[in-house]
Design goal:
Number of strands of chain B: 7
Order of helices and strands of chain B: EHHEEEHEHEE
Structural class of chain B: alpha+beta
Number of helices of chain B: 4
Largest sheet of chain B: 7 strands, mixed
Helix content of chain A: over 70%
Shape of chain B: globular
Number of strands of chain A: 0
Strand content of chain B: 25-35%
Strand order of the largest sheet of chain B: 1-2-3-4-5-7-6
Number of helices of chain A: 48
Shape of chain A: globular
Helix content of chain B: 25-40%
Structural class of chain A: mainly alpha
Oligomer: heterodimer
Largest sheet of chain A: none
Distance between the termini of chain B: 26 Å
Chain lengths: 945, 156
Amino acid sequence: MSSALDRQIKPIYDALETHSNKSAVVQCNKVLKKHPNNILVKALKALALVRQQKVEESLVLADEILALKPTDDAVLTAMMHVLRGLGRHSDIIAMFENAYKQNPLNEDLGTQTFFANVRVGNWKAAQQIAGKMHKQFHDDRYLYWNVYSAVLQANDPSTEAALRPVLLKLALRLISQCQTPSFYSTDRFYVHVLILRDLQLYDEAFALLNDEIGKRICAISLACDELRREIAKLRGAVKDEGDHARERILEKQDRNWLEFLSVLDATFWDISSTSEPSEEAIATVKEQIVKSRELFTQVGKEDGLKDRSGPLALLELAKRARVYGLSSDASELRTLVESYFSQFGDKACCYEDLVPYVDFEGEEFSKWTSFLNTQKQPADTTPGLRRLINVFKLQRYNLTSGELTPELETERAAEYVRQYLSGLALGSNLPDTELQPADDLAILAGHAYITLWKLTGEESHLHTAASLLDYASSRSRQSYQIRLLLIRIFQLLGAPSLALEQYRLMNVKQVQTDTLSHLILTRASMWSLAPLGDITYMSECMEASQIYMSNSQETAEFVARAFSTEKYSQIADFIVFEDRLDNSLQRDLMKIEHVRMRVANEQLNADLVDMELIELKFIFDRLHHDNRDFTVIPNYQPRGQPSLNEITLPVKMSPGMGWLSAYLKIYIKGFQLASDLDDTVEDKLLIGDRPKPSADPENQAPLNERLAIRKQEEIDDMTPEEQLFYEYASALSGWLAPYHDHVRPPPAALLAEAAKANDLKPGHPLKNLAAAQAANGSTTNGQSKKDDEPPAIKEPPELISKVFDELKARFDAEMNGQKLPSELLHIASITQEAFLFFALETVRFKQASVVKIHKLGNLVQSFKSIRERGQEVLTQMADELSKLAEQVATPEGRHKFVQASSSIQTDTGFHHDYVLNVAKKVTDSRKQTFEGISKGIRKVIKNHS
Amino acid sequence: MNIRPARVEDLPGMQACNLQNLPENYTMKYYMYHGLTWPQLSFVAEDQGRIVGYILAKMEEDLADDEEPHGHVTSISVLRSHRRLGLAKRLMIQSQEAMATIYRASYVSLHVRKSNRAALGLYRDTLGFTVQDIEKSYYADGEDAYAMRLSLKQSQ
């Protein structure tokens, strides 16, 4: 390349670097005028174009460049980014393979080809390339790439079970051929042991780990040490491990809980490893128990307050002894629990430490209860306050259902509040970055008021909870646990804007958006004012989805880097992690919510229908992981009672895999009917790669069969209203499918149209289009008109006509009952969804010409009454909701809200005016929501009448 | 309580620890980079299967010619409910030992917010760190940081 040209290309790179993509295109065009065939400039132009979302123009250039089979490093790099932007990973692989084939001596091209396969998990191809590279370049690194790719291929779910040992044996043979032994690098050693483990060659693995070098490696590599521990267990050397751990506890002062668990497992091994232990075995275990008890007691004495391991291990020992019926003293566990409490009662984690051990019954239960009563002492110091909080928590855990009466719960709530307000004094000097030591008392009070609401059905208890927790949050700004309770209470009270505000104050970021966005995005469509053009929740979905984008761009890159630096012990973790995020349940629950809001927000045209159809079909094949974190929500409810998370769900059921499956089926079917795309057309028009086909045998059946299957787990996950909607949507799709199929234009016509549209644009025909046209032309001669007669017009199934009445009846029942805002909004949103779904499935028949040509007048006639009934019902709901909106944000409404907590208000701090402020916030937010939803419903009716 | 090496799949748990502890915003990529580059230096504390604390640490990458290799604590965090149990100390020591034995680090450095009295007490009084310098508006919100370090030479 001439240096003059170099000088011209540099500004293009500069522009790309600063993301000035428009200017990059201008620069490219300038150079291309003089050098019309410069392939690098073309590649850079394609990159600038794809970054501007000008997909089709970029596509044309990319195809042109790929056809030239580039080998130049700069071109390949640019093209890699272009193709990634287009989602065409298989083309990246083909491009590098091609280049490497032309230059088999270029090591760098080999590496790039290997990485391209690694990034998409193509282990088989990766393995072959690594093998070839090892032969060519004689570097042991490539041999281990080959080995580890084989291991990964063996572990891939799509690999047949019979092939796995073959692959692993091959890998082992390769290692034995290597000139340097595996222990020269910890990570190679790790791979070696891993293969032995997977081949169940435990003794050989153990021999490697236990010789001089093996021990040294385990001492510095915890990954290897973990493997060693696991293999010891697999060999059944549990007792050896126990001895080993005992030594480490005594001599090295190791206080890792894993060591204690090893001792505990060894203690009971003689009876836990067999179903019918002999007398002799039982006697041995009894002896072992005594020995272990001595050990743990000694540790406890030595460590004192410095470490909890000894006393915790004693608790676990006593519990296990009881499980095996080897407890000599019925009161042992309780005595230990009491002594633990006396020692560690002023640690904040004491409650969590003890909960697994305090399910006492009968006499032990009453002794434990009276012990707790003696521990309740006034709290004038911070440790004293923590002890009191632990007493309260443990007492609450003990409550029987007989003690959960409104009267007693009211008393308890009042006590929690009293102690909370006085406990605030202990933290009055703390900076506002610190938590208040009394926070948990406010949280306990929140539990009590929420329980009171559950027991009595009176919303006023939620008002009290909201007021108190809002105050507690103002005193302890860092407490996310208080915010979590507030989110749920605000949602129940129909004040989603306040819930969203609390969520944002928690500053949820990065991976947290996967685990925690469920807090505000579960069934977000019911809060959303999307019909009015408010896209708050839609953008929140997009923002929370960022993490999945970074995951797919970055994690695969880390896998490639781990190969490059030979950090094999990290690779499997990265792959698991990538999979968990990529196939996250929350990701696709959010996707469904986004679709539901989009349908309410936008016009139901081909753009929306086709795009969502393709995306939902991709999701339908995924095997999901549920990464949602519900354990962050505090729970101090009595044993045997539903958790606080469960009782504060704004709509009683939490959506899971079944819910997702049902909703995917509903919308895929709906979009499929509304869309003109069939599979062949979709294939031709698709730009990026398809996801890897799922290995699940259940997913092998044809799509339409899979869509028709109904599962119990789907129904179990849905509210009664959602179940009704599911049945209705299925009935509607079943009824209308024949008419859609009759009217839908044939694939050839569609492709011709797409080609025509494409011809109008500058450039190049779409991928495969010409071939498709030719093929279709020859088989159908361009004429694929179906039978002239439409399918017989059937009456709509009864359910379709009745669904709106049914939903109205549920709405009325809620209006005459608790009037819980979240329930009312849920029913209203499902009714609106049913109406929109009807619009979606009938939009095709809106065109008078279509109806006339296909003689579907009678069918369209029957739509009218259904649509009208939907409109009537929705109008009535909208009226009710606006009335409620008017009622709530009034002086009387606020007065009632403030009155609810009058008995616990104080003169300063948590006083009348503070609560009035909360009342104003909540009632205003609810008013705004009800009004907005009501207006939204009217807008939806107007748009689709 | 168990201290074990951090793994990539601990990321959600580690981030959950940060809900109230750290306003800092580390990207997923940054965590992964630590995991990939110095897998032996980062640890989590696990209690009943839940991550209640972690340390994310690295070796200093851009060393001047006259600088000795040294480690740096990127982030350390323990849940409030599990404070005052010696957890942070154990996490620190575990990581420091690895820095010294695996990478021959001569000292370990860290930054702490001027206002973070609890952490300052831990580093200075319990672990023996000394303040080297004050870095003006080190944090995104403008707060100053103390740059602290601890020699690892005796422990080798």
